[in-house]
Design goal:
Layout: H1 4-17, H2 19-23, E1 28-34, E2 39-47, E3 50-55, E4 58-63, E5 67-71, H3 76-87, H4 92-104, H5 108-121, H6 126-139, H7 148-154, E6 159-162, E7 166-170, H8 174-197, E8 209-214, H9 217-226, E9 237-240, E10 245-249, H10 255-279, E11 286-289, E12 297-300, H11 301-345, H12 357-365, E13 370-371, E14 374-375, H13 385-391, H14 398-402, H15 413-429, H16 431-442, H17 446-449, H18 453-465, H19 469-482, E15 483-484, H20 486-489, E16 504-505
Parallel strand pairs: 7-8, 8-10, 15-16
Antiparallel strand pairs: 1-2, 1-5, 2-3, 3-4, 6-7, 9-10, 11-12, 13-14
Helix pairs in contact: 1-4, 3-4, 4-5, 5-6, 6-8, 8-11, 10-11, 11-12, 12-15, 13-15, 15-16, 16-18
Length: about 500
């Protein structure tokens, strides 16, 4: 296995050597901190006083004064062509490191041509050969499964849309169904390339995988109850092993989002009435303005237009944050459940109890991160679960997690945050041990196979990471203590804080 840290270092040195050139590429910004609260990571363009943020539903325009801080340089789509081109003169190792960076950052599909190009240039490079072979398998056409019985069990009629590897059952608009299919296909490609690069070649099922997307939570819950799966009523998505399918629901139906939408509509109605009044004003007229959240005042036409523009942008800010919060939850859930489906159908997990539940959930959680409406890739610092981890008191002990404490009773925040955190640590900081542990879980030898599940997991973990679990626990906690998202790493300062080790922004 190629050591990723060394490869990243070589490519990073090349990037640093040309930092001045790259820094002049244009006025782009990707970390945005609103003056009135809230922050997003999304592709943005700054032109004078105008800031255009590109989101899944189009461009949203703000003023520069709406932001407390803007930081350029966190758009993987923009960075990938430069990384790829800088790595090519360095040969196989640098090119492979750039490919791995792309996969980790959600750009597996964009990296596919480079994988095949590197295979042609260096056929003997085993990790690239495995990745290219995985792409070849994924390119083979797949048949749609017979989902008639499952569709009847869902309890509501649904449309069917298909991607190369997914049959999506849904009640959404065509554009939204296409977006969900694109997300799932991207997760699938990333899943196979990640494991191929690590030396695990997985089969691609000959039939498309089934994903059902309810528009109402009530229909989702009714389906769970009909399947004697009521214990999972607190979940947003569920992999049903008997049907070999995933079900999830659209969180726009939830009260929080309904309230946000209604508040926005009310505010926009108020601002529309104000705009109409402003447009009727004579050039030198004065208008008494009284809108919610603002002190009543008498303004001239230009002043009223300026106030109106600010209030409209503040409303847009609230809508944007609410929309991105929903996408982070819904698309993160979709990616998570698709990984469960892939693990069961690719041969990664031959039997349902090969992996302890914490490992199943922790692995799936590595694929959850969505930033600015964009799937962020694999094992990124988790914008949702990292704060959950920090809230756990006292800091979790390792062995109870290995034994599955807190799992088996539906979704609970803390155990899932612990599972994400441990797999995150293992993949990034103990990658060799992570693979050996995975191999032992998949193919336990005689000394492990007869042990009770909890003992088997602990014994396998000790075999690859050593008997000193206390030391591993300390390293795990220390790693998470310095983990930060890019938005956290660059956040505008608040109160002065004591010096600490540099954080890892991923």
């Amino acid at each position: 296995m190629v050591r990723m840290a060394a490869l990243r270092g070589r490519v990073l040195r090349r990037l640093m050597a040309t930092a001045a050139i790259l820094g002049s590429a244009g006025a782009r910004a990707d970390l945005l901190y609103f003056e009135k609260g809230g922050e997003i990571q999304a592709s943005a363009k700054v032109e004078g006083d105008r800031v255009e943020i590109t989101l899944p539903d189009g461009i949203r325009e703000f003023a520069r004064a709406d932001f407390k801080k803007i930081v350029p340089g966190y758009s993987p789509e923009d960075e990938w062509p430069r990384r790829r081109d800088l790595a090519r003169p360095g040969g196989t190792q640098d090119r492979y490191a750039a490919i791995w960076w792309a996969i980790e950052n959600g750009l597996a599909i964009e990296a596919a041509p480079e994988i095949r190009s590197l295979r042609e240039a260096d056929p003997g490079h085993a990790p690239t050969a495995r990745m290219a072979a995985a792409l070849d398998r994924l390119d083979e056409p797949r048949r749609a499964p017979d989902a008639s019985a499952f569709r009847k069990a869902l309890g509501v009629s649904m449309e069917a849309s298909e991607g190369p590897h997914v049959l999506l059952l849904h009640r959404q608009a065509d554009a939204e169904a296409a977006r969900r299919l694109a997300l799932l296909e991207r997760v699938i490609t990333s899943f196979y390339l990640d494991f191929a690069g690590r030396g695990i070649e997985l089969k691609v099922p000959d039939r498309k995988l089934i994903f059902a997307w309810f528009s109402e939570q009530s229909d989702y819950l009714a389906f769970l109850r009909s399947q004697n799966a009521g214990a999972f009523a607190t979940t947003k998505g569920y992999f049903h092993p008997t049907w070999n399918a995933v079900v999830a629901y659209d969180s726009r139906c939830l009260e929080r989002h309904e309230r946000g939408k209604q508040a926005s509509e009310t505010r926009r109605g108020e601002l529309d009435r104000l705009r109409a009044a402003v447009e009727r004003m004579p050039a030198r007229g004065r208008l008494r303005v009284a809108v919610g959240g603002e002190a009543p005042r008498t303004l001239g036409r230009d002043e009223a237009r300026s106030l109106l523009g600010r209030l409209e942008r503040e409303t847009l800010r609230g809508e944007t944050l609410l929309d991105l919060d929903r996408l982070a939850m819904d698309e993160g859930t979709a990616a998570h459940e698709m990984v469960h489906l892939l693990a069961a159908n690719s041969g990664l997990q031959s039997r349902h109890d090969d992996f302890p539940i914490w490992f199943q959930e922790g692995l799936a959680a590595q694929y959850e991160v969505v930033r600015g409406g964009r799937w962020a890739g694999i094992s990124r610092a988790h914008d949702l679960r990292l704060p959950d981890w920090r809230k756990i008191q006292p800091t979790p002990a390792l062995e109870p997690l290995l034994r599955g404490r807190g799992f088996g009773r539906g979704y609970q925040r803390d155990p899932y945050a612990e599972a994400w955190a441990l797999v995150y640590f293992l993949r990034l900081e103990r990658s060799d041990a992570y693979l050996r542990f995975l191999d032992l879980l998949r193919s336990p030898d005689a000394s492990l196979a007869d042990l009770p599940p909890g003992d088997r997991t602990v014994a396998a973990f000790r075999r690859v990471l050593g008997d000193d679990l206390a030391s591993v626990e300390r390293d795990w906690h220390a790693f998470l203590a310095t983990a930060q998202t890019p938005l956290e790493h660059h956040a505008p300062p608040t109160d002065p804080a004591p010096a600490s080790p540099p954080p890892r922004a991923r």
